[in-house]
Amino acid sequence: MIPVAVIGASGYTGLELVKIVSQHPAFELGYVATSEGDAMIDAVHPSLLKVVNTPVEKADAARVAEVAELAFLALPHKTAMGFASELLARGVKVIDLSADYRLKRETYESHYCPHTDAANLPEAVYGLPEFYREKIKNCRLVANPGCYPTASLLGLLPFIPYIREGTPVFIDAKSGVSGAGKKLSDATHFVNINENIFAYNPLSHRHAPEIAEKIDDLFLTEVEVNFVPHLIPVTRGMLCSIYIQLDRDVDPVAVLEDIYREEPFVRLRDRPVDIKSVAGTNFCDIFVRKTGSSLFISSAIDNLLRGASSQAVVNANILCGFDEALGIPSLAYVP
Asked: What is the third-level CATH fold of 2-144+308-320?
Protein backbone atom coordinates (compact mmCIF):
# COMPACT_ATOMS: atom_id res chain seq x y z
CA MET A 1 0.00 0.00 0.00
CA ILE A 2 1.28 3.44 -0.94
CA PRO A 3 0.41 6.15 1.59
CA VAL A 4 -1.07 9.25 -0.05
CA ALA A 5 -2.29 12.62 1.13
CA VAL A 6 -5.34 14.64 0.12
CA ILE A 7 -4.79 18.33 0.79
CA GLY A 8 -7.78 20.60 0.38
CA ALA A 9 -10.34 18.01 1.40
CA SER A 10 -13.16 20.40 2.23
CA GLY A 11 -14.23 21.10 -1.37
CA TYR A 12 -16.10 19.00 -3.89
CA THR A 13 -12.99 17.67 -5.66
CA GLY A 14 -11.38 17.00 -2.28
CA LEU A 15 -14.41 14.95 -1.26
CA GLU A 16 -14.26 12.95 -4.49
CA LEU A 17 -10.56 12.27 -3.94
CA VAL A 18 -11.22 11.01 -0.40
CA LYS A 19 -14.00 8.75 -1.68
CA ILE A 20 -11.84 7.20 -4.42
CA VAL A 21 -8.61 6.89 -2.44
CA SER A 22 -10.35 5.41 0.63
CA GLN A 23 -11.61 2.54 -1.55
CA HIS A 24 -8.47 2.17 -3.67
CA PRO A 25 -6.83 -1.27 -3.44
CA ALA A 26 -3.25 0.06 -3.62
CA PHE A 27 -3.42 3.50 -1.98
CA GLU A 28 -3.74 4.14 1.73
CA LEU A 29 -5.36 7.41 2.81
CA GLY A 30 -2.54 8.40 5.14
CA TYR A 31 -3.19 12.12 5.52
CA VAL A 32 -6.16 14.40 4.99
CA ALA A 33 -5.87 18.16 5.41
CA THR A 34 -7.75 21.43 5.11
CA SER A 35 -6.71 24.99 5.87
CA GLU A 36 -8.17 24.67 9.39
CA GLY A 37 -7.88 21.00 10.38
CA ASP A 38 -8.96 19.86 13.85
CA ALA A 39 -11.94 17.77 12.69
CA MET A 40 -12.95 14.35 11.46
CA ILE A 41 -13.62 13.90 7.77
CA ASP A 42 -17.17 12.72 8.41
CA ALA A 43 -17.83 16.04 10.17
CA VAL A 44 -16.48 17.98 7.19
CA HIS A 45 -18.50 15.78 4.81
CA PRO A 46 -21.44 14.15 6.66
CA SER A 47 -22.02 11.80 3.70
CA LEU A 48 -18.90 9.91 4.83
CA LEU A 49 -20.34 8.93 8.21
CA LYS A 50 -19.66 5.21 8.83
CA VAL A 51 -17.69 5.08 5.55
CA VAL A 52 -14.48 7.05 6.17
CA ASN A 53 -13.44 8.03 9.69
CA THR A 54 -10.14 9.86 9.23
CA PRO A 55 -8.85 12.84 11.20
CA VAL A 56 -8.42 16.07 9.28
CA GLU A 57 -5.24 17.99 10.03
CA LYS A 58 -4.20 21.53 9.24
CA ALA A 59 -2.20 21.39 6.02
CA ASP A 60 1.53 21.17 6.68
CA ALA A 61 4.11 20.14 4.06
CA ALA A 62 6.61 18.77 6.58
CA ARG A 63 3.93 16.54 8.07
CA VAL A 64 2.90 15.30 4.61
CA ALA A 65 6.49 14.30 3.86
CA GLU A 66 6.56 12.22 7.06
CA VAL A 67 3.49 10.15 6.23
CA ALA A 68 2.92 10.14 2.45
CA GLU A 69 4.79 9.36 -0.76
CA LEU A 70 2.33 11.13 -3.03
CA ALA A 71 0.00 14.09 -2.49
CA PHE A 72 -3.13 15.26 -4.26
CA LEU A 73 -3.53 19.04 -4.10
CA ALA A 74 -7.17 20.14 -4.32
CA LEU A 75 -6.25 23.74 -3.60
CA PRO A 76 -6.96 27.08 -5.30
CA HIS A 77 -4.46 28.40 -7.81
CA LYS A 78 -1.57 30.32 -6.26
CA THR A 79 -2.01 28.42 -2.97
CA ALA A 80 -1.27 25.13 -4.73
CA MET A 81 2.11 26.14 -6.18
CA GLY A 82 3.40 27.27 -2.79
CA PHE A 83 2.49 23.93 -1.28
CA ALA A 84 3.71 21.89 -4.25
CA SER A 85 7.18 23.45 -4.20
CA GLU A 86 7.60 22.51 -0.53
CA LEU A 87 6.44 18.94 -1.12
CA LEU A 88 8.68 18.41 -4.15
CA ALA A 89 11.67 19.69 -2.18
CA ARG A 90 10.90 17.03 0.44
CA GLY A 91 10.68 14.21 -2.12
CA VAL A 92 6.89 13.89 -2.27
CA LYS A 93 5.33 13.36 -5.70
CA VAL A 94 2.47 15.73 -6.49
CA ILE A 95 -0.76 15.57 -8.47
CA ASP A 96 -1.95 19.17 -8.64
CA LEU A 97 -5.60 19.81 -9.50
CA SER A 98 -5.18 23.59 -9.74
CA ALA A 99 -4.13 25.55 -12.82
CA ASP A 100 -0.70 26.41 -11.40
CA TYR A 101 1.36 24.01 -13.53
CA ARG A 102 -0.85 23.53 -16.59
CA LEU A 103 0.39 26.46 -18.62
CA LYS A 104 3.57 28.12 -19.78
CA ARG A 105 4.61 30.85 -17.38
CA GLU A 106 3.72 33.78 -19.63
CA THR A 107 0.30 32.30 -20.45
CA TYR A 108 -0.39 31.55 -16.80
CA GLU A 109 0.56 35.02 -15.61
CA SER A 110 -1.61 36.63 -18.30
CA HIS A 111 -4.72 34.89 -16.99
CA TYR A 112 -4.09 34.09 -13.31
CA CYS A 113 -1.37 35.68 -11.17
CA PRO A 114 2.44 35.91 -10.89
CA HIS A 115 4.01 32.46 -10.78
CA THR A 116 6.13 31.78 -7.69
CA ASP A 117 7.52 28.34 -8.58
CA ALA A 118 9.11 28.81 -11.98
CA ALA A 119 11.84 26.29 -11.08
CA ASN A 120 9.38 23.37 -11.02
CA LEU A 121 7.17 24.55 -13.87
CA PRO A 122 9.26 22.83 -16.63
CA GLU A 123 9.00 19.54 -14.70
CA ALA A 124 5.21 19.45 -14.77
CA VAL A 125 3.55 16.97 -17.13
CA TYR A 126 0.03 17.68 -18.35
CA GLY A 127 -2.20 14.95 -16.96
CA LEU A 128 -4.30 13.97 -19.97
CA PRO A 129 -3.40 10.25 -20.06
CA GLU A 130 -4.49 9.52 -23.63
CA PHE A 131 -1.88 11.94 -24.97
CA TYR A 132 0.75 12.26 -22.22
CA ARG A 133 0.84 8.76 -20.72
CA GLU A 134 4.52 8.03 -21.34
CA LYS A 135 5.65 11.32 -19.83
CA ILE A 136 3.38 10.84 -16.80
CA LYS A 137 5.07 7.51 -16.03
CA ASN A 138 8.39 9.14 -15.24
CA CYS A 139 7.54 12.50 -13.68
CA ARG A 140 7.29 13.92 -10.15
CA LEU A 141 4.65 16.56 -10.81
CA VAL A 142 1.41 16.10 -12.73
CA ALA A 143 -0.65 19.13 -13.73
CA ASN A 144 -4.16 17.70 -13.74
CA PRO A 145 -6.18 19.29 -16.59
CA GLY A 146 -9.20 21.49 -16.05
CA CYS A 147 -12.65 20.05 -16.68
CA TYR A 148 -13.44 22.20 -19.72
CA PRO A 149 -10.06 21.49 -21.37
CA THR A 150 -10.40 17.75 -20.68
CA ALA A 151 -13.77 17.46 -22.40
CA SER A 152 -12.76 19.83 -25.21
CA LEU A 153 -9.34 18.34 -25.96
CA LEU A 154 -10.49 14.71 -25.97
CA GLY A 155 -13.09 15.58 -28.59
CA LEU A 156 -10.94 17.96 -30.60
CA LEU A 157 -7.37 16.62 -30.64
CA PRO A 158 -7.92 13.68 -33.03
CA PHE A 159 -9.08 16.15 -35.70
CA ILE A 160 -6.35 18.79 -35.43
CA PRO A 161 -4.45 17.33 -38.46
CA TYR A 162 -7.61 17.77 -40.57
CA ILE A 163 -8.62 21.34 -39.68
CA ARG A 164 -8.78 23.67 -42.65
CA GLU A 165 -5.91 26.14 -42.38
CA GLY A 166 -6.93 29.57 -41.14
CA THR A 167 -10.32 28.50 -39.79
CA PRO A 168 -11.20 28.86 -36.10
CA VAL A 169 -12.52 26.27 -33.64
CA PHE A 170 -15.76 27.02 -31.82
CA ILE A 171 -16.52 25.30 -28.51
CA ASP A 172 -19.91 25.69 -26.85
CA ALA A 173 -19.54 24.16 -23.37
CA LYS A 174 -22.05 23.60 -20.58
CA SER A 175 -21.23 22.67 -16.99
CA GLY A 176 -23.08 21.68 -13.85
CA VAL A 177 -22.99 24.08 -10.92
CA SER A 178 -20.52 21.99 -8.90
CA GLY A 179 -17.83 23.17 -11.30
CA ALA A 180 -18.01 26.58 -9.64
CA GLY A 181 -16.99 25.07 -6.29
CA LYS A 182 -18.51 25.68 -2.88
CA LYS A 183 -18.00 29.42 -2.77
CA LEU A 184 -21.33 31.24 -2.90
CA SER A 185 -22.05 33.70 -5.70
CA ASP A 186 -24.96 35.35 -7.49
CA ALA A 187 -24.46 33.04 -10.46
CA THR A 188 -24.82 29.88 -8.38
CA HIS A 189 -27.56 31.18 -6.08
CA PHE A 190 -30.53 28.80 -6.39
CA VAL A 191 -33.02 31.42 -7.57
CA ASN A 192 -30.64 32.48 -10.37
CA ILE A 193 -29.54 29.09 -11.68
CA ASN A 194 -32.75 27.11 -11.17
CA GLU A 195 -34.64 26.71 -14.48
CA ASN A 196 -32.03 28.93 -16.11
CA ILE A 197 -28.97 28.80 -18.34
CA PHE A 198 -26.47 31.49 -19.25
CA ALA A 199 -23.03 32.04 -20.74
CA TYR A 200 -20.21 33.49 -18.68
CA ASN A 201 -16.87 34.97 -19.76
CA PRO A 202 -17.72 34.29 -23.43
CA LEU A 203 -14.62 34.35 -25.66
CA SER A 204 -12.49 35.41 -22.67
CA HIS A 205 -12.54 32.39 -20.35
CA ARG A 206 -9.08 31.42 -19.08
CA HIS A 207 -9.48 27.77 -20.10
CA ALA A 208 -9.37 28.78 -23.78
CA PRO A 209 -5.59 29.43 -23.72
CA GLU A 210 -5.11 26.08 -21.97
CA ILE A 211 -6.86 24.33 -24.86
CA ALA A 212 -4.93 26.29 -27.49
CA GLU A 213 -1.59 25.74 -25.76
CA LYS A 214 -1.99 21.95 -25.62
CA ILE A 215 -2.93 21.85 -29.31
CA ASP A 216 0.29 23.70 -30.09
CA ASP A 217 2.28 21.46 -27.73
CA LEU A 218 1.10 18.24 -29.36
CA PHE A 219 0.83 19.30 -33.01
CA LEU A 220 3.12 22.34 -33.27
CA THR A 221 0.32 24.37 -34.77
CA GLU A 222 -1.59 27.42 -33.65
CA VAL A 223 -5.38 27.21 -33.78
CA GLU A 224 -7.80 30.00 -32.93
CA VAL A 225 -9.96 28.67 -30.11
CA ASN A 226 -13.29 30.42 -29.52
CA PHE A 227 -14.63 29.12 -26.23
CA VAL A 228 -17.98 29.95 -24.64
CA PRO A 229 -18.89 28.26 -21.32
CA HIS A 230 -22.40 28.09 -19.90
CA LEU A 231 -23.78 27.24 -16.46
CA ILE A 232 -26.71 24.85 -16.41
CA PRO A 233 -29.05 23.89 -13.53
CA VAL A 234 -27.62 20.45 -12.77
CA THR A 235 -25.25 19.37 -10.02
CA ARG A 236 -22.58 17.61 -12.06
CA GLY A 237 -21.75 16.91 -15.67
CA MET A 238 -20.25 18.70 -18.65
CA LEU A 239 -21.20 18.75 -22.33
CA CYS A 240 -19.01 20.28 -25.05
CA SER A 241 -20.25 20.97 -28.58
CA ILE A 242 -17.28 21.56 -30.89
CA TYR A 243 -17.47 22.91 -34.45
CA ILE A 244 -14.62 22.81 -36.99
CA GLN A 245 -14.04 23.01 -40.75
CA LEU A 246 -12.19 20.10 -42.38
CA ASP A 247 -9.58 20.44 -45.11
CA ARG A 248 -10.31 17.05 -46.69
CA ASP A 249 -12.87 14.27 -46.84
CA VAL A 250 -12.27 11.94 -43.87
CA ASP A 251 -14.35 9.41 -41.99
CA PRO A 252 -14.56 11.04 -38.52
CA VAL A 253 -15.68 7.86 -36.78
CA ALA A 254 -12.67 6.00 -38.21
CA VAL A 255 -10.39 8.81 -37.00
CA LEU A 256 -11.74 8.48 -33.46
CA GLU A 257 -11.56 4.68 -33.53
CA ASP A 258 -7.94 4.80 -34.63
CA ILE A 259 -6.97 7.14 -31.76
CA TYR A 260 -9.09 5.71 -28.95
CA ARG A 261 -9.47 2.00 -29.78
CA GLU A 262 -7.30 0.90 -26.83
CA GLU A 263 -8.24 3.68 -24.41
CA PRO A 264 -10.12 2.39 -21.34
CA PHE A 265 -11.91 5.64 -20.48
CA VAL A 266 -13.04 6.97 -23.85
CA ARG A 267 -16.30 5.63 -25.28
CA LEU A 268 -17.42 6.37 -28.85
CA ARG A 269 -21.18 6.75 -29.21
CA ASP A 270 -23.39 6.38 -32.28
CA ARG A 271 -25.84 9.00 -31.03
CA PRO A 272 -25.39 12.41 -29.38
CA VAL A 273 -23.92 12.06 -25.91
CA ASP A 274 -25.47 13.07 -22.60
CA ILE A 275 -24.13 13.93 -19.16
CA LYS A 276 -26.22 11.42 -17.21
CA SER A 277 -24.43 8.47 -18.80
CA VAL A 278 -21.02 9.65 -17.55
CA ALA A 279 -22.01 11.10 -14.15
CA GLY A 280 -20.12 9.28 -11.40
CA THR A 281 -17.50 7.85 -13.79
CA ASN A 282 -14.14 8.62 -15.37
CA PHE A 283 -15.50 8.09 -18.90
CA CYS A 284 -15.49 10.63 -21.67
CA ASP A 285 -18.22 9.87 -24.22
CA ILE A 286 -17.76 11.25 -27.73
CA PHE A 287 -20.10 11.54 -30.72
CA VAL A 288 -19.20 12.96 -34.13
CA ARG A 289 -21.09 13.85 -37.30
CA LYS A 290 -19.99 15.42 -40.60
CA THR A 291 -21.84 17.24 -43.33
CA GLY A 292 -19.73 18.45 -46.22
CA SER A 293 -16.63 20.04 -44.70
CA SER A 294 -18.37 20.90 -41.41
CA LEU A 295 -17.71 18.66 -38.41
CA PHE A 296 -19.69 18.51 -35.18
CA ILE A 297 -18.06 16.83 -32.16
CA SER A 298 -19.91 16.30 -28.89
CA SER A 299 -18.15 15.16 -25.71
CA ALA A 300 -19.46 14.56 -22.18
CA ILE A 301 -17.72 14.03 -18.85
CA ASP A 302 -18.38 14.24 -15.13
CA ASN A 303 -16.73 17.57 -14.32
CA LEU A 304 -15.81 16.54 -10.75
CA LEU A 305 -14.41 13.14 -11.73
CA ARG A 306 -12.98 12.94 -15.26
CA GLY A 307 -12.62 16.70 -15.09
CA ALA A 308 -10.76 16.59 -11.77
CA SER A 309 -10.57 13.87 -9.10
CA SER A 310 -10.82 10.50 -10.86
CA GLN A 311 -8.50 11.69 -13.62
CA ALA A 312 -6.06 12.70 -10.86
CA VAL A 313 -6.16 9.16 -9.44
CA VAL A 314 -5.69 7.69 -12.93
CA ASN A 315 -2.57 9.84 -13.21
CA ALA A 316 -1.42 8.61 -9.80
CA ASN A 317 -1.95 5.01 -10.95
CA ILE A 318 0.22 5.62 -14.01
CA LEU A 319 2.85 7.41 -11.95
CA CYS A 320 3.04 4.48 -9.51
CA GLY A 321 3.10 1.78 -12.18
CA PHE A 322 -0.40 0.42 -11.56
CA ASP A 323 -3.09 -0.40 -14.08
CA GLU A 324 -4.60 3.02 -14.70
CA ALA A 325 -8.14 1.71 -14.18
CA LEU A 326 -7.32 0.45 -10.66
CA GLY A 327 -9.88 1.78 -8.19
CA ILE A 328 -11.47 4.14 -10.73
CA PRO A 329 -15.29 4.51 -10.74
CA SER A 330 -16.96 3.24 -13.90
CA LEU A 331 -20.67 2.86 -13.02
CA ALA A 332 -22.77 5.88 -13.90
CA TYR A 333 -25.35 7.48 -11.61
CA VAL A 334 -28.31 6.25 -13.68
CA PRO A 335 -31.21 6.77 -13.43
From this structure: Rossmann fold (3.40.50)
